[in-house]
């Protein structure tokens, strides 16, 4: 029977990661996959994670199953981190998932279960896995304009015009902060206008929050999500601990469903548990337990917060350095948006042929749409990248 299988398109980001590994050049630079790296090019285990693992190893006495929705202490800790008290706890259903991708997938499953004919509006562009999963599930997508390639900012007028086509019951997928792949983000006034439009239209927001703490800080990055959750009748929030706790391979995430009353929340909670049971039964626990241990221990939490801030500020410094170098070398402000963007990524707006030339001639790897991972740079490689961009005539 398996002869009936058809080859599926590869993930371009993961394919590029492999191509980089296979490149023998010593001075190659990897700006591909979205994984934080320090100045030495290493993705460190955060200090608080190491301490929590040590403590867990000493204190944990059982590896028996936990529960279909995961450890309630993880849910409480994540809800506080993401939503603080923007929404009463009794209005939030939550379930642990394998990473943010698991949360995104379970959110789509819940949406489809509620409305098989749903349309999900997605930003153009968005994280390719959003589109891949929705296509696989047979869910209809509608693209809304998001990125203004001239300015490198958000095409807010285009976005609002396209969201004007929303109908009651449509879902709008929004990146809570640090938009992937562009790095361009709405300001709070624009967020408020989107919330008002969604409420006007009776559309349901789904927020993908994979980079809290990587943009303007833990609180600032959660602010748009809190605004949405406190002002709409219902919404879904898919969160990931992969980046801000650096526990990528532990597969730690959480899906939250916000509603306005206890009955709806009970049904949402039962549905999240049901969906987990259909797909993998119990979600991974190790990473979730580390996260709740850190968030509930003031010393560990302070250490985690300060290391996360160091990472965030390192990326901001690299942004400013790169924008400055490009301005100096090209004599234009064309790349000034790099310093305005937030998170790990910036879409540079370079043609695919020049992206390819950067790879072939300079050993610089970025995604074909010219997305770079800022954390793939360091103080020494920023000028090399800037010079190469100017050399290929981008
Ligand atoms: N959503 C977005 C926009 C992402 O960039 C990522 C990236 O890794 C994820 C979700 C999910 O990440 P993970 O499944 O590794 O937690
Ligand atoms: O966009 C990125 O680079 C990250 C990591 O299939 C990632 O979100 C990339 C591809 C993928 C899963 C995660």
From TrEMBL:
A GO cellular component annotation here is: cytosol
GO MF:
identical protein binding; L-aspartate:2-oxoglutarate aminotransferase activity; L-tyrosine-2-oxoglutarate transaminase activity; pyridoxal phosphate binding
The cross-references to Pfam families, in alphabetical order and at most eight, read:
Aminotran_1_2
This protein's superkingdom? Bacteria
Q: Does the keyword Nuclease apply?
A: no
For the keyword Manganese, the answer is: no
Q: Which Gene3D superfamilies match?
A: Aspartate Aminotransferase, domain 1 (3.90.1150.10), Type I PLP-dependent aspartate aminotransferase-like (Major domain) (3.40.640.10)
User: What are the TM regions of this chain, as residue ranges?
Assistant: none
Coiled-coil ranges per the record?
301-328
Q: Which family does it belong to?
A: Belongs to the class-I pyridoxal-phosphate-dependent aminotransferase family.
GO terms classed as biological process: L-phenylalanine biosynthetic process from chorismate via phenylpyruvate
- Read off the PANTHER family from this record: ASPARTATE AMINOTRANSFERASE, ASPARTATE AMINOTRANSFERASE, MITOCHONDRIAL
Q: What keywords are assigned to this protein?
A: Aminotransferase, Coiled coil, Pyridoxal phosphate, Transferase
Question: In this protein, which residues make up the domain named Aminotransferase class I/classII large?
Answer: 27-389
**What is the protein name given in its UniProt record?**
Aspartate/tyrosine/aromatic aminotransferase
- Which cofactors are named for this entry? pyridoxal 5'-phosphate
Task: State whether it acts alone or in a complex, and with which partners, per the record.
Answer: Homodimer.
Q: Which InterPro entries match?
A: Aminotransferase_I/II_large, Asp_trans, PyrdxlP-dep_Trfase, PyrdxlP-dep_Trfase_major, PyrdxlP-dep_Trfase_small
Record-linked SUPFAM superfamilies? PLP-dependent transferases (SSF53383)
